[in-house]
Amino acid sequence: xxxxxxxxPEVTKAPPRAKTYKGVQVLRHDPCGVEIxxxxxxxxxxxxxxxxxMDIWHQGLVICFRNQDLTAEDQLRFGRRVGELSVIHTxxxxxxxxxxxxxxxxxxxxxxxxxxxxxxxxxxxxxCYQPRPAKATILYAMKIxxxxxxTLFCDLQRAYDTLDEETKARxxxxxxxxxxxxxxxxxxxxxxxxxxxxRYVHPLVRTHPVTERxxxxxxxxxxxxxxxxxxxxxxxxxxxxxDHMENPEFVYEHRWRLGDLLMWDNRCTAHARRDFDxxxxxxxxxxxxxxEAPA
Length: 295
Description:
Elements: E1 19-21, E2 24-29, E3 33-36, H1 47-60, E4 62-65, H2 72-82, E5 101-104, E6 107-108, E7 111-112, E8 121-124, E9 134-143, E10 151-155, H3 156-161, H4 165-171, E11 175-179, H5 182-185, E12 199-203, E13 205-207, E14 214-216, E15 223-226, H6 231-245, E16 251-254, E17 261-265, E18 269-273, E19 283-290
Parallel strand pairs: 3-4
Antiparallel strand pairs: 1-2, 2-3, 4-17, 5-19, 6-7, 8-18, 9-17, 9-19, 10-16, 10-18, 11-12, 11-15, 13-14
């Protein structure tokens, strides 16, 4: 049975104490979230500070810059420093630059005008159905609802590390097919997908190119099958892996504040969205940074 996002408790914890890494003030959240407190992305960032931010990102997997007031160009400047930006493949959702996508429930003439406007969204990995999936996603909160709409992040490295040795041996060298049919199942797994829906085969377990840590590279929304495996066996194995990786022990829940800019390592995390009141506006500006072919 698929785990529902409602199964993740809204746990309130005492605020962690800030620490400093190479001049960057950080708050660490378990298991995979870091807040950065003293950087204004609208201002130039020194090379040493940028290297420290990237170090923090590679270790923390999800980093949040609080209290940002960013133009589209500010966000693009930071994104281009992280790497080559991906061009949006759905031109109807493109913003003022080919790399900008707006995710919102804004309507014009009674119709939604941006991507993924409403509702809960299953755990997924951005662009895993492409030959070179995103290495980073950079999401900026422009409007947020009073409640709901939180984003959950699963640490796929920890999920892999905690598998039993028999399962690790069973999945070693296996490959999986990822498919995303936006029309049939944008937020929840579709019963069937179109023949021309974007798809690609990648390793079930991938190794991070910087940290060299292994992680699971599957997700409930887009991973359709283990290549070369009987369907019943494939379905059972994937369901077991999905349930394991979505264990709340591996999940950080980000409660958005206005002005948050989040960047997550799309190579070793999966993310999901909680439901929210569709009558309250939620507007996010998104960039993705092109990654390497998973290996």
